[in-house]
Specification:
single chain; alpha/beta; eight-stranded mixed beta sheet
Length: about 325
């Protein structure tokens, strides 16, 4: 009996050691690796077309924009190949609005907002850039690290537009992890310096269904999966190590603190992917809230406010009012 207990104790110890080393690395893989949503995956599926809200449309020309160029470029700090649509309108060359998709998505999902800009006449105010960030659409497969690397891709997008199109004044409009990419761009000192060195100005931010705190959002997901707290903590520590110790800073309360540009925040109270309670807590942590305009909704799912028929015109009016201020 004693021998059996000794063997059982050893077995339990080995299982705990295996869990400590193996499970966190597996969880890190779930965080950093996901199957890319290519154009083909979306366009070949009626279900995904409907989910993206594009139905029979697949190019900006389907929304009445004919002057469209595909740009190929590399991200900053790495040789990851990116691709995006530059949509030239009657707007001044220096003014550009960038639509930034989220995780497990691509630029086809953000393309539909061109309809909003056409309807409001904002297509005479801005040119548009609709990129595929890494691991999305036509861009190269690569780890995103919950928006940390998306921030670098966004920086590369602005630098490319500045160099090739003469764009210098930007509005950044991000969804879910795309909103975190915007915050990362404005909160990482190395990326801020890069923008300043090239005289690139970000004038306004629109954040829809934002991933506002990476750690707390992942914690909620891990609790829903029944992952013990100590394994989550180890997994998140590995994530932080992978992004130069920046894990604890991947939150709006840090990244957007001190940002002076006008910020429009749109969110649904019952968002099951980027919880509303996490967002409101992060906004409360900001030292100056005078530049922040918020609109909260009941009903729509994650990144579905504009696609909800009963809210579409209200959403459109909010965006137009903010951008015309």
């Amino acid at each position: 009996m004693k021998k059996f207990l000794r063997i059982s104790s050893v077995a339990v110890l080995l299982l705990l050691v295996a869990a400590w080393f193996v499970v966190p690395r597996y969880i890190l893989g779930m965080i950093t690796n996901y199957e890319p949503f290519t154009f083909e995956r979306v366009l070949d599926s009626e279900e995904w077309r409907a989910s993206y809200g594009i139905f029979d449309k697949e190019h900006p020309r389907d929304y009445g924009f004919d002057n469209v160029e595909e740009l190929d470029y590399l991200t900053v700090e790495e040789d990851v190949q990116l691709n995006g649509w530059y949509v030239e309108t009657t707007a001044p060359a220096e003014k550009c609005l960038v639509l930034i998709h989220g995780r497990t998505s691509n630029r086809l999902k953000t393309m539909k907002y061109l309809e909003l800009f056409k309807a409001t006449g904002l297509d005479s105010v801005y040119n548009f850039f609709i990129p595929d960030l890494r691991n999305s659409g036509k861009s190269q497969i690569a780890k995103t690290y919950m928006g940390y690397k998306f921030g670098e891709d966004l920086a590369a997008s602005l630098l490319t537009l500045n160099k090739e199109k003469g764009s210098s004044d930007f509005v950044l409009y991000g969804f879910s992890m795309g909103a975190m990419a915007i915050a990362t761009l404005l909160g990482r000192e190395d990326l801020v310096s890069l923008m300043n060195d090239n005289s690139i100005k970000v004038n306004q931010l629109i954040l829809d269904s934002s991933l506002s705190n990476v750690k707390e959002t992942l914690r909620v997901n891990s609790q829903n999966l029944g992952l013990p707290g100590f394994l989550f903590d180890q997994s998140f520590a590995l994530y932080g190590d992978a992004i130069n110790g920046f894990g604890e800073q991947m939150r709006f309360g840090y990244l957007l603190n001190g940002v002076e540009q006008p910020i429009l925040v749109l969110h649904t109270r019952n968002d099951n992917r980027t919880p509303f309670a996490i967002l409101t807590k992060e906004l409360e942590l900001l030292s100056d809230k005078a530049n922040i305009e918020t609109h909260f909704f009941d009903g729509p799912r994650h990144v579905r406010i504009y696609q909800t028929d009963s809210l579409k015109l209200k959403y459109q009016s909010i965006i137009e009012g903010f951008l015309r201020k």
